[in-house]
What we know:
mainly beta; 7 strands; Pnp Oxidase, Chain A; six-stranded antiparallel barrel
Amino acid sequence: MTMSDEPAGAMHVLSEFQCLELLASRDLGRVSLVLGDQPEIFPVNYTTDGSTVIFRTSSSAKLARVTSGRISFEVDDWNATTGVGWSVMVKGVAQEVTSGVDPFAAALRSHPIQALAPGERQEWIAIYPSEISGRRFHRLPTAPRSNG
């Protein structure tokens, strides 16, 4: 039985394997961290090497400072036609790997990071997870919104 066959309101906790599959199926996610005393969320293009999330940033960007403290990464999807959505959260620590990006070379060759936003990105950041969790849900499809 697929999620779209189940009754609306169904929610499933995903296994770590399912989370990793979904994480690898996308290339745009969100990094969440606290800078100073303020929470911040940044969209990033990324790739994965197993459970490790790798992204690039500018050395002058706020994200270049993420290598101290804990960090969260989230990716999700929603299909209004089928009413099926999912979300995967990775919590862990970030480490700058610009000079040590070689262990990720295979992942980067098979899934290169294509930045959507303009600008140069010299810094490579890896998020090493301490926790990976996710859920998938189903609700009745919604009618398209009109702007009128």
